[in-house]
Amino acid sequence: MGSIDQNVSRTTEEVEELACLYSMKLHPAAIELDLFEIIAAAGPGAQLSPAEVASKLPTTNPEAHVMLDRIFRQLASYSILTCSVVEGEDGKAKRLYGLAPVGKFLTKNEDEVSMAPLVLMNLDKVHMESWSLFVLTGRSSRKATTASGLGAAASRGGGGEIIPKVLNPAFDKAHGMTSFEYHNSDPRFNKLFSDAMNTPTLFIMKKLLGNYKGFEGLNTLVDVGGSSGRSLKMIVSEHPSIRGINFDLPHVIEAAPPIKGVEHVGGDMFESVPSGDAIFMKFQGGKERTEGEYEALAKEAGFTGFKKACWALGNCIMEFHK
């Protein structure tokens, strides 16, 4: 991972996009220790020394500030923190650190959410144990079903039977079950996963609702893998004529709160999904493709049209039409 070069001319939107993406690549220690929140609490543009940050931590380790300085120097090298060198009271140089643009995605905003849970999930031991097996197992089984899977579910119209399950062979081998089954067996990781899926939603959906006009005119919208229904809540609030159907696994739906204008439905997307005017999916992964390759993918899966609608914080919004 490189850095966000402050000397390169970029638009405000480009800087925001890069900052959001960088926020997902951090070591979890800085988040678990609340280091970003401690710096943010000092005020906009503030810089603190490692010793000042260490004084806010529940530790008596006299070397804590030295360890923090090492963490901060690495984060500053990736433009995650700012760094200034000043002369201390003892005449020696000391470093001060502040939040770079990435920081706003790692500290709680006005809605009390941040990208931090997504970072913690991506770097959790449950996921990390899969990576050692990734090269050995490859992703061949995933490639065989990606085209029809994306095409069948991310459509205007539709519903009914779907496709064979898309597998992650490395995860399956590491844990002896699919990722969907694992979430149901590990309450700690299931909560981590749910938080990771829910908290970035506010960032991305706010941007999406400002840029994307595709929800206009819909009567029924199905969010496949919608977790607690937070995305649909925002969409229905903006478009109250829409009836939302939040579709996810039964154990996820059991914990979903009541939402006006949204019906929670439990089930398995690999067996069937509820019908609607449009089906909405997000964060599906897969290999990078050009716009032309996605258009070919759409036609191969039986769609009559494909459109790249807009971008929202590094996420491309695409429409597959039937």
TrEMBL record:
MF GO annotations = O-methyltransferase activity; protein dimerization activity
Report domain O-methyltransferase dimerisation positions. Answer: 29-108
Q: Where is the signal peptide?
A: none
* PROSITE patterns hit by this protein: SAM_OMT_II
* One of the GO biological process terms: methylation
InterPro entries tied to this protein? COMT-like, COMT_C, COMT_dimerisation, SAM-dependent_MTases_sf, WH-like_DNA-bd_sf, WH_DNA-bd_sf
The record's gene field reads OMT
Q: Which SUPFAM superfamilies match?
A: S-adenosyl-L-methionine-dependent methyltransferases, Winged helix' DNA-binding domain
Protein name, please?
A: Caffeic acid 3-O-methyltransferase
Keywords for this entry? Methyltransferase, S-adenosyl-L-methionine, Transferase
- Which residue intervals define the domain O-methyltransferase C-terminal in the entry? 170-282
